[in-house]
Amino acid sequence: MKSKVVLAGGTGFIGQYLEEKFNNLGYDVKIISRQVGHISWNNNTEIVEAINHSELLINLAGKSVDCRYNAKNKQEIMKSRTETTNILGNAILACDNPPTLWINSSTATIYRHAEDRPMTEDNGEIGSGFSVDVAKAWENALFSFDLPSTRKVALRIAIVLGENGGVMTPFKNLVRFGLGGPQGPGTQRFSWIHIEDVYQIMLFLKDHEELSGVFNCSAPNPVTNRELMSHLRQVMNVKVGLPSPKWLLELGSVIIKTETELILKSRWVIPERLEREGYKFRFSTLDTALQQILKKS
C-alpha cells in the first residue's frame, strides 16, 4: 500500500507544488479544501479517514492576508487558521493509527519589526499587532493538543518565492513597468525562502524523528528591500526602477485592497535551528533563487 500524505489547505501556491512533489515520490496525496473535488472541511468522517494511517499531515490552510484588515477580513483570517488547526487536532485524536508528524504552518511575521538584529527561535522577540496575534493563536491551537504518537512542528514560514505564483507575480510586474526601485525606506529586511526548500525542509523534518516544536522556515541570507529590488532588476535586465515612497504605497494599498505591512514590515528571520540540526539549503542566496525562478521569464 502507498504511503499517504495529507495536505490540508492544499490547493494554493505552496500546496500545488507539494502535491506534485509528493505524487512524484509515489505518495497517495489527500487534499482537504473548501474547493469542490477535495475532502471538505465540513466532513469530519472523511478527514479522520484521510489522516488515519497517513505518514505526514501538512496544514497550509488560511485565508490570504493580501487584503484590507477590516473587521470581517480579520475575523476570517483568524478563524480560517485556528478553526482548521483545531479540526485537524481533533481528527488525529480520533485516529487509531495517527500520523507520526503534523507540520502546521505559522508565519515569520510573528517576530517584531527588526532592523537592528536577526530573530531566531531562541532569541527572537515576538511582536505586537493583529498579524502577530493571529500567529500566536495559530501556534497555540497546534500546541494545545496532547498527541503522544504525533510529533508537532510549527513552521514559521518567510515569504515564499517560486515560479508559478505567490509574490513573484506582483514583483515582476513592478519591475517590468519601471517601478522596481526601493519601497518605502528600502532598509526593511526581506526574509524569504525558495519553495523547493520549503518542500525539502518538510522531508528533512519527516526523516529526523527527534525534531519537534518551532522552526524558522527562511533562507539564511535575508536582504534589505533595496537589495531585493536591485537583484530583481538585474536578473530581469531592467535598468531603471523608480522608488515607491511610503505615502504612495499607502495610497496604492487602499486602491488594490491590501496592507502596506506586507511590504514595509522588516522581517529579519534566521533559520538557526534548521542549520544547527544539519539542514543544507538548496537556495541559500537570493541571487541563486531568482536566477532559477526567472530563468524562463
TrEMBL record:
Name the InterPro entries on file.
DUF1731 (IPR013549), Epimerase_deHydtase (IPR001509), NAD(P)-bd_dom_sf (IPR036291), SDR39U1 (IPR010099)
Q: Where is the NAD-dependent epimerase/dehydratase domain?
A: 5-216
Q: Which residues form the DUF1731 domain?
A: 245-293
Query: What's one Pfam family the UniProt record gives for this protein?
Result: DUF1731
- Domain of life, source organism: Bacteria
Name the protein family. Answer: Belongs to the NAD(P)-dependent epimerase/dehydratase family. SDR39U1 subfamily.
Q: NCBIfam families, alphabetically? A: yfcH
Q: What is this protein called?
A: Epimerase
Highest lineage ranks of the organism? Bacteria, Bacillati, Bacillota, Bacilli, Bacillales
